[in-house]
Design a protein that fits this description.
With 215 residues, the protein is α/β, with parallel strands linked by helices. It has nine helices and six strands; from the N terminus they run E-H-E-H-H-H-H-E-E-H-H-H-E-H-E. It has two domains: 137 residues, 3-Layer(aba) Sandwich (Rossmann fold), CATH 3.40.50; 71 residues, P-loop containing nucleotide triphosphate hydrolases (Rossmann fold), CATH 3.40.50.300.
Length: 215
């Protein structure tokens, strides 16, 4: 029987690298961000609903202006909730379609930025959290995106408090060291998860802290 795993981590934590290692280890990784893009693709119902609510979030061609939409939702928690109500149902549908492609004894990793905030973690057999020091996260995000420190902090503030996330996670991967250390930490988690595949009844596992990398 396949094992459903939730994977999350705040901006700049290195979650994307962890997802890549899971995939290299044979897991089927389903990227919620990619599904969210599909949910508001040109011609989609989701894009139509976004256009009705926030016309200024579209570009001159009638497609989604992601920067404009991000500016709206990261400065208004009510707008974030409205956008979630539009996008999340479609993301769940697309995710279920992808999960159906998994092998009978395969680990299926749902890479979900708002895993805990949206409640999806309750539907998983285990949840993995990637964490890093705040300064490290800010520096990484600035380097790869060009955001200002203030913009990064706004995005961090929109995500779950790291302490609460630790309480909800089954595995915590610390990502402040080397790339090699991060990958080894992920492989350790995969090995433990594989042992759980024969029986995927939900059980709470004490959170483990595993040393890891800088992405």
């Amino acid at each position: 029987m396949r094992l459903r795993v939730g994977l999350t981590g705040g901006i700049g934590s290195g979650k994307s690298e962890v997802a890549r290692v899971f995939e290299q280890c044979g897991a089927l990784v389903i990227d919620a961000d990619a599904l969210a893009r599909d949910a508001v693709a040109p011609g989609s119902r989701g894009l139509g609903l976004v256009a009705q609510r926030w016309p200024r979030a579209l570009d001159a061609s009638g497609n989604l202006d992601r920067a404009a939409l991000a500016h709206i939702v990261f400065h208004d928690s009510g707008a974030r909730d409205e956008l979630s109500a539009i996008v999340h149902p479609e993301v769940r549908r697309l995710g279920a379609d992808r999960e159906a492609e998994a092998g009978p004894e395969q680990i299926v990793v749902h890479d979900v930025p708002l895993l805990f905030e949206g409640g999806f973690y309750r539907m998983c057999d285990a949840n993995v959290l990637v964490v890093a020091d705040e300064e490290t996260r800010i520096a990484r995000t600035i380097a790869r995106s060009g955001f200002s420190a203030e913009e990064v902090k706004l995005r961090m503030a929109a995500q779950i408090d790291p302490a609460r996330a630790r309480e909800l996670a089954d595995y915590v991967i610390e990502n402040n060291g080397t790339v090699g250390a991060l990958r080894e930490a992920v492989r350790e988690v995969v090995a433990e998860l594989e042992e759980r595949i024969p029986s995927v009844s939900r059980q709470v596992v004490p959170a483990r802290n595993l040393a890891g990398d800088q992405q």
